[in-house]
C-alpha cells in the first residue's frame, strides 16, 4: 500500500495537518502536500476511470504532465473540472471528486467497455457512425457523451476575480530549475531587466530531489543562495506558481500565475495572466520522463520512476513496500537507491540493456539490489492496483520467465526535453539518436521581425541532461539573451556542476520488442485518451502516415494533457510500423497553452459591466431614467423607443412616429460621426473620398454625400457642411465614425502623403439633437436667439449662433421628411440643452423618439440606410443614386470599379418600394420568388427585402427591396417568401411613400 | 452658459489608489508642423510650459502640452479659456497649414493616485511602465482594456488618464476594479 514515511518530505510541514475530502470521504494531509501526495499518503491509489474503457487509473506522475489524476475540484461558485491532482496544492477544506465514473469509482459499469475494446479501435467513431446519418445525432452521440468524457461543466457563476498584468522585460526566463536560475542570474548580472517564472511553488526543479553538487555545495544550498541573490536585485522579478503558458510572435509571452488556488479563502484575484513583451525569452523548462509501453502499464501503482522518488523525497510518501524498477537508462537507478535508502524493498531492477555499469548501477548492485539485464516486463498483474510483474526477455515475444510480486512499478523510458515553449512560435527540433530524444535545433530558433532568434532553450530543455552542462548552458543562455537585448556587463563566472557518470540509454518503444497482439492491445500510450499501441499501428496500416493524421484518427495526444508523456512513444510506434525513421515522421505541432489555463484568466476583468465598453452620450442618463428600450449600435446603446407605462415597444414606436409627424419629436443624434477635414487640399481630398462634388459646396451649405470603397461598393453616407474656405465637417453614420476617420487617415498617410489636409474626429465634442416636426421652429423660436426662419436658415444650410443659453451650430437637415433642425452644442451642455428643449417644447407636444421611429420615418421617405439597403455588395447605382455620382470629376474612390462589367450590368437588382396587397408587413430579408429552380434544385429568386416596417403614418406595411430590373417594373405584383408560411404578394412601387415632393421639410 | 458637466461629474473612488474624475479640462488638438517655431511659440505662450519632446507631456496644474504624434500636440488650458486660445492659435498661424479644434468635451480626464498606481495602469494597458521607461513626464497613447486612452505621469504616484467621454464610465470602473485588486509588487521604486 502507499503510505506516509516517518522521515523525509522536503515540502511538507508535519506539524500542520490539513483536512480534505475525496469522493465524500474525509482525509488528512499535511501543509505542503499536493492533492496527489495527500491521496497517496492515504493509500488512495485509484483516482479516476479512463476516458473510453473506464479502466481504473492511478497517479502516474508528480507534475504538470500527469494524465490520469484529474478531479472535479471545489463546489458551486468555486467548482473546477479537470484539475490535476499533481499540481493542486492541498488546503484545508479542499473537496475533490473523481471523474468519469458511474455509479462509483470503485464499481464502474462503463468498465464493460474494456471487454469490448476489440470493437472500439482507432477511428471507431468515424467508421461506425457514418450511416444511417440520423443515428449519429439521436442514438450514438447521446450514448457516447454519457460514456466518454472527463470533467463536468460548472453550473454556478465563478465568484472569483481574475486579471491581466502587462509587463515588458529584457529577458524572460521560464523555469526555475537550476538552468533557469543560472540563466536569470547571468542575464540580471549583465544588466538586463529579468523576469523568472516557475510553475510550481518551489525553486530548483528536479535538482532538489536528485541533489547534484553545484559550486562545491549541495544543489539545495546553491538554489537557496541563488534565489537570495536574485531577490536582492532590483532588476529581477521572481514568480513561483507562475507557468509559462505560451510564446508568441515578437517576444510576446503569457505567464499564468495561480495566486490563490492554494489559499482560496484569501483576498485578491485568483489567477493573473502576465502578458509579457520580452526582448528575449529563455525556456529552461526541463524534461518529462517517458513511460514504457508494456501490457497493463496503466494499472494503478505503475508510475514514472522519477515520480516515485519525488513522492518519497518531497512529500515523504512511499507508493509501496516492494517497487520494481523497469528502465532503459541509468537515471531510474536513482529511484531504486532512494527507496532502499528509505528502508523500502526493491525486488529487482529490470533493465532492457545488455550492459549497465555506470556509477549508479554499480552503486545499486553494491547495495545488494538485484539487476536483471536484457529483460523486460511481459505484463503487469492486478486489477485495481498492481500486484506483480511477469519478467521476460526484452528481445523476445513475452514468454514468462518469472513472476515477481510488487505493489509498485517505477518505469523509465528515458527523458523528453520540454520543448513546447521553444516550439510554440516556430523553433525547430532535431532527433538526438544517442539520447533518444527530440531537442531544440539552436540553428533554427523562433525568429523575430529582424530575422534573429528571440527564444533560447537552456539546460535539460536544451538536451543537456547532466548538471554540469545544464547549469553552464543556462548561464550561457542568460548571458546571450541579455546581450541580444543590449546588456553586456560582465556577469562573472558560470556555476560549476558535477555529475556521476552515466551509461548510454537504449531506446525501448515496445516491451517486449516482439510483443504479440494480446500484449500490445493493453499497452497504453496515451492514458488520458485511452490510446494503445495497437491503435497507432492500426492507424498506420490504414494509411494515416502523417503524424498529424494519425494523431487525429487515434486521438493520441489530443486530451487535456496534450500527450506530454505519450507523444514521443506514439510517434516512435508510428515510425516503426511505417518502417520510417523517427525524425522523418516528426512531431505533432506544439500549441499554447503549455497546460490548460482557466478561461476566466483569459477573460480577465472583462465580465459583467466590464464585459464590453458601452458608449454613452451626454443625454444617456435621461434616456435610462425615462423608459429607454435600448438597442446596440456599434458600441453605443441608443434608445430604440421610450416606453410609457405598460405600452408595448410597437405601440411606443408608433406613438413616437405619429407625434414627430404631427407635433414635435426630439432625437439624440449625438452618436453621429463628425469629422473635421481641413487644409489647402481638403476640397480635392473630399472630392476623392465622396462620389459627389464637395469642393464646390459653398460656405454655409450642406450636401448629402456617398462614400464608396475602391471596389465601388457603398460604405458610408452623411451630410457634409462647408465650414470655411479650407474646412469641411463630414457627418458619418453612427457605426462609421472611427472607421471612416481611419479610412481618411489611411489615404492621407499612405497614398496622398503630400496633400495638405488634416482630419480630426470631433464626434464626441458635441451633443447633437434633432428637433423634428411641424413645431420644430416654434420651440427654437421660443427658446430664442439666432434666426431660424426659412429665409435666414433655409433647407440644407447651417449657421452658428445661440439658442436660449446655448452656443450652438444649427443644421437645417432632415432624415424624416419633416421640418427639421439638428442642433449641436458642446457635450458638457448636452443634458441641459435636451432638458431645455423638453421644457420649452412641452406646449408644442415635444416627445423624444428612438431609432426605430427614425428608421420608419426615413423608410416612409424612401431614404436609404447604410447597413440595411447596403451590405457590402451594393453600389450606388443599385439604389438609384446615380445623381450623386459626379460626372465632372476625373476620379473618386470607386469610379473605376463602377466601370467593371458586372457593376455596369443592366441586370442588377435595384431599389424599389414594396407594398403588400393585403397591407401586411413583409418579413425582413424575404426573397422575391422567380420561376423555376437553379442547378442545385433551389427555387430561383429575383430580389430581396432590405427594409420593412409597419408605417403608422400610412397604417400599413411598407418595404424597400432590391428587385431585378425593379424600377422598370412599377406596378407589377411579385411574391415574397415567408418562413413557414405561404408566400405573400407585393406590388412594386416608388420607394418614396410619404410627401414625394418634400413639401413638409421645406417650410 | 448653462449647466456644464463633465462625463462623470467628479466621481471618485477612495482607496490605497484613488480614482477620481478630474472634471472639465480645456483641450485643443493642434495638428501642424511641430518643428515650426510659430507653432511651438503659440503653444508655449498659451500654456507657460516648455514644448514637449517626443513621447513627453509637460503639465503644470490645468495647463500643459502633450506630444501626441509627429504632427499633433495636445494643448491643455482651463476649460473656459479654450475659445480665446483657439483665436490666438488662428491668429498666430494664419496662412500656415494647421488644424486646431476644441476637443475638451470629447474627453474625460481621470486621476489615478497612490503608491501602486503603476500596477493599476499595467493591469489595463500594454505599455512599458517600468520606471526606467516610463517616468514623470512620459505620455503614452495606448489602450486601457478595450478602449483607446492616453496617460502621463504627473509625479511618481500619479497618473493622469484621458479617454473619450462616451467611455468614461467604463474607464473609471476598470480603473477602480484594478485599484481594488491591490499591488502586484513587480515594479521597483524609481531611482
What does this structure look like?
The complex is a heterodimer of chains A (1003) and B (191). Chain A is an alpha+beta fold and 1003 residues long. Helices cover 23% and strands 29% of the residues of chain A. Chain A starts with a strand and ends in a 14-residue tail after the last strand. Chain B contains four helices and eleven strands. A six-stranded antiparallel beta sheet of chain B has the order 1-2-8-11-10-9. By secondary structure, chain B is α+β, with helices and mostly antiparallel strands. Chain B folds into two domains: 87 residues, Probable tRNA modification gtpase trme, domain 1 (Gyrase A, domain 2); 79 residues, 2-Layer Sandwich (Alpha-Beta Plaits), CATH 3.30.70. The chains are: A alpha+beta (1003), B alpha+beta (191). At the A-B interface, strand 9, strand 16, strand 41 and helix 24 of A face strand 7 and helix 4 of B.
What's the shape of chain A?
elongated
Give me the CATH fold name of the largest domain in chain B: Gyrase A, domain 2
Going by CATH, the homologous superfamily of the largest domain in chain B would be: Probable tRNA modification gtpase trme, domain 1
- List the uncertain runs of chain B: none
Q: Report the helical percentage of chain A.
A: 10-25%
How many distinct beta strands of chain B? 11
Largest sheet of chain A: 7 strands, mixed
Overall average pLDDT of chain A: 95
CATH superfamily of the largest domain in chain A: FAD/NAD(P)-binding domain
Quaternary organisation = heterodimer
What proportion strand of chain B?
25-35%
Question: What is the spatial order of strands in the main beta sheet of chain B?
Answer: 1-2-8-11-10-9
- Which chain pair has the greatest contact? A-B, 55 and 54 residues
